[in-house]
Specification:
Radius of gyration: 19 Å
Largest sheet: 5 strands, parallel
Strand content: 5-15%
Structural class: alpha/beta
Distance between the termini: 23 Å
Number of domains: 1
Number of helices: 13
Helix content: 40-55%
CATH topology: Rossmann fold
Shape: globular
CATH class: Alpha Beta
Order of helices and strands: EHEHHEHEHHHHEHHHHH
CATH architecture: 3-Layer(aba) Sandwich
Number of strands: 5
Length: about 300
């Protein structure tokens, strides 16, 4: 089994993949090591009554103690919610690089799950040039739907009841999508026209930035060890998709992972108002259709016949 780094935009299925690989038992798994690592049993899915972040907190405490007071455990958090701008910048400071290296070298077989490493593929390859990079990708319309409607039933019900999904311009920052979209527009003069765009358009814009940057850097840095997993494949055919992923590095998943997937992985959900013309116009404006087709084709290359 290999060293594997998994990265995907939030709401793209990274936790589903983590849950599945955790169930293998042969990997040393690290969950979102760049977040604040509060106790959050079961991670984003809450499918297991396990504190996925405990090992990360222990490693941070160990590295902070070794620093002789120069570092605190909080110094290893790198990205949202407190510093989303760090996710749009390349590279890490030495102490974060050493932290990720310690995870990668913690066992012969390691899986590290990220949502904060979209611009860090080159850094990851420098740490472990022999690793595999798994890029989780979901249709940007589904990602935008999840971000705009958020994870609060009252907020979602209010937008759906009022029919204002395509008019909402703010208050979609639960996973810092609004903050990062605002930073991206402010930093790029060519994107100034999107400063006051509806929330769903800015989510699509952010998807394009994160997808293209991750794809380009990971392809250059990892070559044939760059693999795309399409979110809907993982949800609708988890065992087949997992088997194809393992086959890429010459391995096979375990039957218990298949049983767990059958019990816990739910089918993919459609995005809001799939036939609405607003989606087609936004995809045309942002030239997203070729990128969607590309990602799906790249994921299908590893799918079983």
């Amino acid at each position: 089994m290999p060293i594997v780094f998994g990265q995907g935009m939030r709401r793209s299925g990274t936790t589903i993949l983590f849950d599945l690989i955790w169930g293998d038992g042969r990997f040393r798994c690290w969950y979102e090591p760049l977040n604040d690592l509060r106790v959050h049993r079961g991670g984003g899915s809450r499918a297991r009554d396990i504190d996925y972040s405990q090992s990360g907190r222990e490693l941070r405490a160990e590295l902070a103690a070794r620093s002789g007071g120069r570092l605190s455990p909080e110094d290893f958090a790198w990205g949202a919610p407190d510093h989303p701008e760090r996710e749009l910048e390349p590279g890490w400071p030495p102490h974060v690089r050493d932290y990720v290296r310690a995870m990668a070298e913690s066992a012969p077989d390691v899986f590290v799950k990220f949502t904060r490493a979209s611009h860090k593929a080159a850094e990851l390859a420098a740490i472990r040039p022999d690793a595999w990079f798994v890029h989780l990708v979901r249709d940007p319309r589904a990602v935008a739907t999840s971000h705009v409607l958020r994870n609060h039933p009252k907020h979602r019900d209010r937008i759906l009841a009022s029919g204002t999904f395509f008019q909402v311009t703010t208050d979609f920052d639960q996973w810092r999508a609004e903050s990062m979209a605002r930073m991206l527009v402010a930093a790029r003069p060519d994107l100034a026209e999107y400063a006051d765009a509806p929330a769903y358009v800015r989510c699509l814009l952010l998807w394009r930035e994160l997808y293209v940057r991750t794809r380009d850097d990971a392809r250059r840095a990892f070559g044939d060890r760059y693999v795309v997993v399409w979110h809907d494949d993982l949800c609708d055919a988890p065992w087949e998709t997992l088997s194809a992923l393992y086959a890429a590095w010459g391995g096979r998943p375990r039957l218990r992972q298949r049983l767990w997937a059958h019990r816990h992985v739910e089918p993919a959900r459609a995005w809001h108002a799939p036939a609405a013309p607003e989606w087609d116009e936004a995809l045309r404006r942002l030239a997203l259709t070729p990128l969607i087709d590309e990602a799906r084709a790249e994921a299908a290359r590893g799918a079983p016949a």
